[in-house]
Structures are given as C-alpha cells and as structure tokens.
TrEMBL record, chains A, B, C, D:
Its EC number is 1.2.1.11. Catalyzes the NADPH-dependent formation of L-aspartate 4-semialdehyde (L-ASA) by the reductive dephosphorylation of 4-phospho-L-aspartate. Mediates the second step in the biosynthesis of amino acids that derive from aspartate (the aspartate family of amino acids), including methioinine and threonine, the latter of which is a precursor to isoleucine. This is Aspartate-semialdehyde dehydrogenase. Transmembrane segments: none annotated. It comes from Collybia nuda. CDD domains: ASADH_C_arch_fung_like (cd18130), ScASADH_like_N (cd02315). The keyword Methyltransferase does not apply. It holds the Pfam family Semialdhyde_dh.
Amino acid sequence: MQEGGPIKVGVLGATGTVGQRFITLLSAHPWFILHALGASPRSANKPYTTAVNWKQTTRIPHVARDMVVKECKPEHFKECAVVFSGLDADVAGEIEGAFRAADLAVFSNAKNFRRDPNVPLIVPLVNPSHYAMISQQQVQHSPPLKKGFIVTNANCSTTGCVIPLAALEKSFGPIESLLVTTMQAISGAGYPGISSMDILDNVVPYISGEEEKMEWEMLKILGGVATSDEGVKSFDMHARNPLRVSASCNRVPVIDGHTECVSIRFAKRPPPSPQQVREALANFTTDAQTLGCPSAPRHTISVHEEKDRPQPRLDRYYQDGAGVSVGRIRQCQVLDIKFVVLANNVSIGAATSSIINAELAILKGIITS
Amino acid sequence: MQEGGPIKVGVLGATGTVGQRFITLLSAHPWFILHALGASPRSANKPYTTAVNWKQTTRIPHVARDMVVKECKPEHFKECAVVFSGLDADVAGEIEGAFRAADLAVFSNAKNFRRDPNVPLIVPLVNPSHYAMISQQQVQHSPPLKKGFIVTNANCSTTGCVIPLAALEKSFGPIESLLVTTMQAISGAGYPGISSMDILDNVVPYISGEEEKMEWEMLKILGGVATSDEGVKSFDMHARNPLRVSASCNRVPVIDGHTECVSIRFAKRPPPSPQQVREALANFTTDAQTLGCPSAPRHTISVHEEKDRPQPRLDRYYQDGAGVSVGRIRQCQVLDIKFVVLANNVSIGAATSSIINAELAILKGIITS
Amino acid sequence: MQEGGPIKVGVLGATGTVGQRFITLLSAHPWFILHALGASPRSANKPYTTAVNWKQTTRIPHVARDMVVKECKPEHFKECAVVFSGLDADVAGEIEGAFRAADLAVFSNAKNFRRDPNVPLIVPLVNPSHYAMISQQQVQHSPPLKKGFIVTNANCSTTGCVIPLAALEKSFGPIESLLVTTMQAISGAGYPGISSMDILDNVVPYISGEEEKMEWEMLKILGGVATSDEGVKSFDMHARNPLRVSASCNRVPVIDGHTECVSIRFAKRPPPSPQQVREALANFTTDAQTLGCPSAPRHTISVHEEKDRPQPRLDRYYQDGAGVSVGRIRQCQVLDIKFVVLANNVSIGAATSSIINAELAILKGIITS
Amino acid sequence: MQEGGPIKVGVLGATGTVGQRFITLLSAHPWFILHALGASPRSANKPYTTAVNWKQTTRIPHVARDMVVKECKPEHFKECAVVFSGLDADVAGEIEGAFRAADLAVFSNAKNFRRDPNVPLIVPLVNPSHYAMISQQQVQHSPPLKKGFIVTNANCSTTGCVIPLAALEKSFGPIESLLVTTMQAISGAGYPGISSMDILDNVVPYISGEEEKMEWEMLKILGGVATSDEGVKSFDMHARNPLRVSASCNRVPVIDGHTECVSIRFAKRPPPSPQQVREALANFTTDAQTLGCPSAPRHTISVHEEKDRPQPRLDRYYQDGAGVSVGRIRQCQVLDIKFVVLANNVSIGAATSSIINAELAILKGIITS
C-alpha cells in the first residue's frame, strides 16, 4: 500500500517497557521502519544495546541494536512521519507537546493529554471516528499545525473492558451501569514497577489513579463527538445516555494480561439474553479490520464456551495479543449480564493500540508521507 | 469454665487440610482435648504421624502424633462431646448423618447439610441466634435425638463477606443488593487441590459451585428464623427484605486469604456515608465475644485507613486469622458503597468457625458434658 | 526432501502434556502429517477436542481438532512411519513394546526403555551416533524386526546439561567429575503434576528418581558404543574415562525451563580457561543441524555475556525452545569450571528432541517411507 | 538476669526491612527495651508510624508506634547499651564507625566491617569465641575505646550454610572442599529489592557480590583466632586446614527462607557416613544455648528424615526462625556427603543473629550496663 516505500517512525521512551514492545513490533512491521529512538539524557548517545535493559523474551531486533539513542528532542525526529511515545507521565506532557508543536504526529501511551478536549483518546477497535477531532486540534493550536497532532490511547485496564462494551452498545444500544473489578498484571506498572515483596503470594487491592481513569476514560471513548451550532466539536462523554461506571482495581501476581469481571445493565428493557450477548461479541467487527490495518486482529473478540476461561496465562496471546477474550457470559442477579474479559495489557492495552491507531491515521489520510 | 475437666472432642477427616488445621487449633485449646481422629479406611489403624501428609508450618502437635487414626464410625467417637468434621463433600453426607443419628454433636465444614431446612448454617460472628433451630432438628429426627445435631459453617468465601454485611445491617438496616467479586486463595481448594500448572502466573475466573453457594448461603445466614402459627421454625432467607446477591468467583495465586471486592446498596435512603460505614464496621461486636468464646477474635473487624490494604499476605493473620479486615471503604458509582474484605479462609473461613460454633453451643447450654 | 509426500505419524498419549506439545509441533511440521492419535480407553473414540483438556497457549491445531482418538493399539497406527510416545511410565513399557513388536518405529519420552542395553537413549544434539545400535535391536528381537525399533530421549533435566557437556568433551576431551544442582520447572511433572500448595512461595528439594536418572543417563549418552570381538555392540557408559556425576534436583515455581548450576572437572590438565569454554560452547555445531533436520536449532548454544543470564522466563524460547542457553561461565574454586545452563524442558527436553530424533532417523535412512 | 532493669537498645535503619524485624523482635525481648530509633534525615523527627512503610505480618509494636525517629547520630543513642544496625551498606560504614568512636557497642548486619581485621564476624551459633578480638579492637582504636566496638553478623546465605558445617567440623574435623548452590528468597534483597517482573515465573542465577561473600566469610567464621608471638591476634581464615569454597547463588520466587544444596569433602579419610552426619547435626549444641541466650534456639538443627524436606514455606518458622533445618543427607558421587539446608534469612540470617550476638556479649561480660 505504501508506494513511497517504508514510513519512517520514531519511538520516545525507547528503553522503557512500552518502548521495548514498540521496537519489537515495529521491527517486523510491513509499513514502518524504525528511524529514531529517543530516551532520557542518561541513555542518549549510546547504542541501543548498551542503553537498554532488555526484558523481552525475544532478542533485541537487529534493526535497533546499533541505533544510537537520542534525546527526546523534535530535531532528531523530524524525518519521522509517526512518533510513538512510551514516555512516563512525569515527562510525557512536556515532550509530547513539544513534538506536536514541531508539527509531528504523536501517538502516546501516557495519560497526560487524555483529558485534553481536543485530543482524541482512541481505542482503535472502538472509536476511530474520534479522528474527526484532529483538524480542530490542529487549527486551534497556536500557531496552527499542518501535520502535527497528538492521539492518545487508553489506560490498559480501560482498553480491555471497552472493546466488548462497544460491541454490545453497537448491538443493543446504550449501557446504563457498569461495575468492573479488575485483576491486573504486574507488567502494567512498568519496570521495575511492583516490588516482588508486594505481590508474591498476594493481591494489592489498589492501583493509584486507576479507578478514576477507568471511570472517566470509558465515557470519553464510548461517547460521541458533538458539534455545536458554531461548528465547535467536543467529546460528549456518553451524555445522551448517561453511563455510571464503578471500578475496583487490583494487582495480582500475573505477568501479562488483565482479567476483569464485568457486570452491566442495559438501557434496553428487556435486556438481551446471555446468548444474544455471546453472539454480538463473537460477531463484532471493527473499522480497523475492514479498512485493512495490518496490526488489527483478524478476529476481535474470542468468546469462550469453556466454563473456566479466559485465563491470562493461556489466552493473552490470542491474535498476538491484539484481540480480547470474553467468557462466562451469564445473568447477573443485580444488573443484567456479567462476564469475564481478558486483554493483553502490553499489546492491545498499550503498544499495539498505538500502532493500529497510526495505521488508521494513514488509511484515513490524516498522515501523509 | 469447665468444671468437669476438659471436653473430649473428635475430628473427622483428620488427615485432610481442614483436619490438620483443626488438630493444630485444638491441641492448644483451653477447653477441648483431642480424643479421637477419624479418616478414610486407608489411614485407619495407623498412628497419625504415619497416616498424615502434614502440610502445616508448625509441627504435628504432640497430643496427636501417636494417636491411632480410626475409621469414621460413630462407635469410635461415642465419648466425644463434640465432633468436628473436615470431611470432603463426597463422603460427608453419609458419615455426618450417621454420627448425628448416633446422638453425637457434629460441627461440619462440608456443604452437604447446609441447605437442610433444619440445619443451621452458622457463621459464629454473625448468626448464633440460629441455634434456635437445634431443638426442632432433634425432635424431627427419627428417632428423636437427645444430644445429637449437625451445625454447618459457611463456605469460606461466604464467611468473609457476610461478617461486615452483618455489621452493616445491624447499624443501617437491610441491604438490598450486593455485587461481590472474589480473589480466592488456593488453600480453599484443599490438597492437592489446584494444579500449579493452572495457577502460577494466572487467574482462574471460575470455581465450581462457588457463586451459587455464596448467593444462597448469604440469604440463609443473614436472614432470620421465622416461626409459623403451628410453631414450626424455618429460615426466612432474608425474605422480609429481599436481598439480591451476584457473585463472581476467581482463584488467584495466593496461599491463604480470600480478598473480596464488595459493592452494596442499602434499603435505607439516603444510605450511610463511607465514614458511617467505617465506624459501624470498626465498632462491631459479636455474641461470640461477649459470651466469652475463647477462640473468638477480641476485635472482629479491622478497618484499614491505608489506601492499599487489606492484603492477604500481610493481613491474613489478624487475630490469628479469626478476625476480618476491611479497607478502601468508599462510594460506589452504581450502588451505594464499595469496599474490600479480607478473611483467612482456613481460619475464620473454616476450622476456627467450627470451633467457635462449638464454644457457642457449650456456652448456650446446647451441649452439656 | 520427501519425494513420497508427507510422512504419516502418530502420537501416543495424545491428550497428555507431552502429547499436546507433539501435536502443536507436528501440525506445522514440513515433513510429517498427523495420522493417528492414541490415548487411554477413557478418551478413545472421542474427537480430540472433546477428549483433551487443552493447556497450551495456542489453540488446538485444526488438523487435530476432529481426529477421533484411538486406543493405543498397533493396529490403529500401522500406516504410521513414525510413532511418537508421550505415554506415562506406568503404561509406556507395555504399549511401546507392543508397537515395536508390530514393526513400528517408536520415539519415546518415557523412562521405561532407557536402560535397555539395545535401546539408544538419544539426545539429538549430542549422540545421534548411537543409532548404530538399531540394527542389533532389530536382529535380537524375537522375532527379528524389519522396521520396528524404539529410540528414547532423555529425561528433561539430563538433556539440558548434556548438550554443553558434549560440546566441551568435543573440544577438550573427557570430563572427569560433574556436580549439578537443578532448579526445575513445574511443567516437567506433567498435569496436574505438582499441587500449587506445594510450590507457591516454595522450593521442593526433591524429585522422585530424578537424581538417579541424571547420574545414569549422562553416562549412557556421553559414552560411546563399543563392539566386542564377537561383533556385539554395547553402550560403554563413558567407561574409558570414568565420569562421576552428582546431581541435586529441586522443583521451583517456574512454569517452563530448567535452570541448572553445573561445576565440572576435566581430565585434561591444565583445564581450559573460562574463555576457551565460552568459545567452545558458542561454536558447537551438531549433526542434526548439518544433516538438515528441520526442527534442529540453527544455533545450538547461546552463550550469554550478561552477568545475570540465562533466566527461564526470558531465555526459554531461544530457538523456539530447541536450543540451550549457557551463562556465568567462570572458574570453580573446587572443580575447574562452573556455569549455568537453561533448557526448555517441554521443547528440547521432551517433544522437540523426539521429533529431531525421528528426523535424524529419516535422514540416516533408518526409517524409509 | 538483668538486675539493673531492662537494657536500653537502639536500632539504626529502623524503617528498613531489617530494622522492622529488629523492632518486632525487640518489642517482646525479656532483657532489652527499645530506646531510640534512627533512620535517614527524610524520616527523622517523624513518629515511627508515619516514617515507616510497615511490611510485617504483625502490627507495629505499641512501644515503637509513637517513638520519634532520629537521625543516625551518636548523641541520640548515648544511653543505649546496645545499638543494632540494619543500615544499608552505602551509609553503614560511616555511621557505624562514628557510633563506635562514640564508645557505643554496635551489632551490624551490613557488610562494611566484615573484612576488618579487628572486627569479628560472628554467627552466634558458630563462633562466639571470636569475641576474643574485641579487646584488641578497642585498644587499637584511636583513641582507645572503653566500651565501644563493632560486631558484624554474616551474610544471610553464609549463615545458613555455616551452622551445619560448624557442627560437622566439631564432630569430624576439618572440611576440605565445599560446593554450595543457593536458592535465595527475595526478602534477602530488602524492599523494594527485586522487581516482580524479574522473579515471577523465573530464577535469577546471579546475586551481586553474594558468591564472593559466601566464599570469603565462611573462612573467617569457621577459622580460628591466632595469636602471634608479639601477642597480636588475627583471624586465621581456616588456614591450618585450607578450605576451598565454591558458591553459586540464585534468586528464586520465595518470600522468606534460603534453601542451599551443599556438597562437602572432609579431610578425614574415610569420611563419616550419612548416618554419622545425621547424628552429629541433630546433636549439635551451641554456647548461645548453654550460656542461656534467650533468643537462641532451644534446638539448633532440625534433621529431617522426610525425603522432600526442608522446604522454605513449611520449615522457615522452625524455632521462630532461629534454628536451621537440614535434610536429604546422602552420599555425594563427587565429594563425600551432600545435603540440603534451609535457614530463615530474615531471622537467624539477619536480625535474630545480631540479637543473640548482643545477648552473648552481655553474658560474656563484654557489655556491662
């Protein structure tokens, strides 16, 4: 599809956990070619192999081994049509802002811009329609931008949950209430992240800021884009059909894969049956797939009939981590329906989402080489 | 308190996980003295040390080491004023029934008699008032019993949840809806129980029969005992204020201690505030304590102010496992209040409950030496 | 290479842990095609999907899903040029013997025939020369066999250790003493195998029969095949240069990948330096590779320079589990050299070894379609 | 025994892992009373409850809750007859030196002074005779000290191993060679210590500096104190019977308890049999016990006959963690005898050793109130 040859991309936060995942995925990508790696001044000017404490189960890709890591400054990335950011929140705001100001297209995993009213928060299997906000983001920037913008993806625990919810709203209309209890993998906290003393033989029933993120992000993602009479666009936060979300977030001794127990109440009465829910989930297709994003899962939601699935260790590799797994779909005694979702927090929950978002931006013509 | 000297007690299923716990606790009990141990025919006639595959972190108590294990037949236990049963469900029904028929007082951990309309399901920190059913159980037995009866305790995941709920209903009146997601320890499945291949780096979002047990047992425990015009007693299953319970049960790689995320809606409007809930839980006292049960916790519920507690590894030993810990009490966006409960499934969730139940029966005069 | 089209193969013990691994690997094999699956009478006559409790992280291969499982009787496998056995030791002896008697070529993972004086115990990256014993095995069988034989592979903990040892003996001559302490993964015990109650937050310093197996099997594998004056072949058990082996075997809470701390003393004085050892290991090539076995690792031993590698979670996928990783090569204060080996017990330690053994047998002309 | 009432003690590094353990043990000590707590300037002047991130399974002892933490300066500890140090190595050298210079008696867990030729490295169940060095340490100090001194205890992995070795040397004379492979608990690395990403489902075959420590410390501890013709004392490093030690150190996913596989060769020919070794270990008594140290284990070494013990999860609480457990005593094919040792690294491997060392110093009259 790329007549002009491979598209040059950069990675910010290249030595971190999400950065390593970006590099692994991009090294085998059909469209993209790694062009620049950015990290902290401590790592700058070192070959990537020296700078990184590599923690993946595959070797460092050859393309990256000898690349010299640079500081996260726009001048080192100006040839990159796409910049992926795995930066930590404490530096992401400033750096990503500077990159956008330098007219670069930034796909961020950090939380800093997620609540920005002009920045879409896109889960690529759910709301690529929110790309409609990009032109306003560019125009309202001072000075206005031609190519630069920021797109964020969601918190890893939000992503897993929101995909089946989108499928259900598509089939059955608005969801009214949602109770979700998560059991989240340690990799979601980065490296070194969680001390082993805190999680071996243990559960930690708290993740800082996580519940607030889930409760807020779902509204932005599942909501629409409204246009005022003056033509100003805004995210409607699911306002036409208010959605109440209550999240309880836990850390468990699992390496990869967030498991979530979800109970929902539909606006529609009577609500769909478990069997109808099962079918709606199994048949869910996404724009990412139909438009032809190479990193999109061929099948989005794996619906398990086995009574004890999905399980993170067995199911987190479904569709190379780009799909989600749902099981135990049954009636809830308090709301309508309950089920278990499993999503790979380091794939669809992080780097894979950013990459599909970039693929979508290219296919939609928002990024042009 | 025991003028007549120590009370002889027996343990059925003495070589199993719960049986080992009974023996550990009873060997240091101020009232009880181990008199007879029962196990399967395979173990019978062996010294306990030979018969058991001991898996506790303390040594086999001296009193038990050389006791000869017997078959689970009433004639071997006729001197026992109390018989504790840690039998598996596949044999518990028949054996416990035979023991009762032989006029023995049986305190069971098995599920077999929990749904029997004449058998109380007693969590000793919640519903000792259900002992009121014993006389009817004895009279309706054929032939009627003088001393024999069966009391069961609850499933380990039910026990942890129902204690704070009882405290809240005592302070604020009926609860109307309850959503609970459990993260249960592997010891709840006995030994060998869960294969390590199934739980290392994993969560299993299913425990056979567990959700049904929780949803049903809570109603029996939190409900009252009704008396018909004909004087017939029955468990009212919380019927005067119907309670809807929805449970999602998960197994996690934790050795001991069930963690549960609970959301509730009160009948009372407006509902109590988080701070009122905190105080009600912290101040909860039980009959077991005021009557002077030696195994009752001195303080029932530990209310944590730390934002990341309770945690199973750190909090499961609270009150030697006889108390429960509650934390993260906060508002729920969908129901009223949510919080996290931790209970030690092998202590208050199993053997300790049975022992306090027996202590209560003695203090109430239901068992007489 | 296969002019006659794909080679039909069967799997015995198809529903077990090793059997599932065989099926996964064989479903994508360039030469072999799954033709028959055998399991216990309990599973027989069921579709594989129904019979198996699938525990792999990939889905059941399509080729196997609807195959009807058969009893492990030779008549169901007579079209199979190769039969792979993942049978448990309690039944493997009888069944594998019957298959050989029916003139079938059996590649076994079980221990039953490993000590048979006519059965080679082949680690494919070490001693394919032991195929020289096959003709004698066939001739001495009663009645003599035309095509049938049994080849076993080694115990999983032996396999990892013996590969670097073979490399070192090839470069520096005989090893005289060997002390090895293993830290073995739970998957080595099959399913359900180790109870989670035994291994979470624990080490079990004992594996039944394992130390004896390691101490004996290494001698058979690293030794040669001697021929008497009468032309009778026998395994010499490293007798010309006696090798003393002392093994201490431990189970640790790791899912896949056996880590072994090895100390050795060479016969050669002075012994090679750590750097010479490093080079010898890194440069080791095998017949399996040069002959063109499709499942042989392209590179046999990965020598790590990082001071804290190999680690099972990060390195067990090296060469899809067909290679081994060695690190921390340094002087031993008591013997000569010490190092750490990591081998994937379910790949090169089990199914992959059998498959390469079969590939070798085909390339050497021992099996002809 | 203390006529003058309780002995005032201080704890340096009071908020750290070892400090928390000191406080837990000292709060229930029959002789000692907590008088001063020292920590970093960041924690100074805060109540202990506020300063500490408490990670023990018991609550913060009442005696410590409201104590105000001080900076680690001698003037705050001058009333303390004993100062226990759980300081990290990066600050321990300077602070402990300053405390000694202020004529305070310091019992250190840090490595800084272990190699000092005048500082004894005392494992209290092994070499209290090394207290003979204290007078020289005081005299050679500039200016000479009246009461101040430093005693260190050993690295946690050394301690477990050296106790059975001392028992064996006592019975059978010098050991000549020792190969030890450790499987060490995560708590040995402090908090936060090991990242969960590094150890879940994993083994790390490297602990920085650990092998060198074990190989060197054993010589100092098991060696004697020599006196030159000029009356100068020195540690002889086991020189009369040179001892070669080779250690391989691994981190495993275990919370507490270091497991070690040990092989030894005695100087004595023929060597003792496994049964003789078993008896020598079981009968080992120590000065700490006979002198009446209240924290000494009543029985030093638990010899296991079960074939699969000791195990860290089950045996680390033996004698409240003050004793060690040995099992699997058998012949080694390369050296003479091999066995498995388990020691609780946070008890006898750290705080408990320091406390018994202080008790010994009091009983020997080296510390006087």
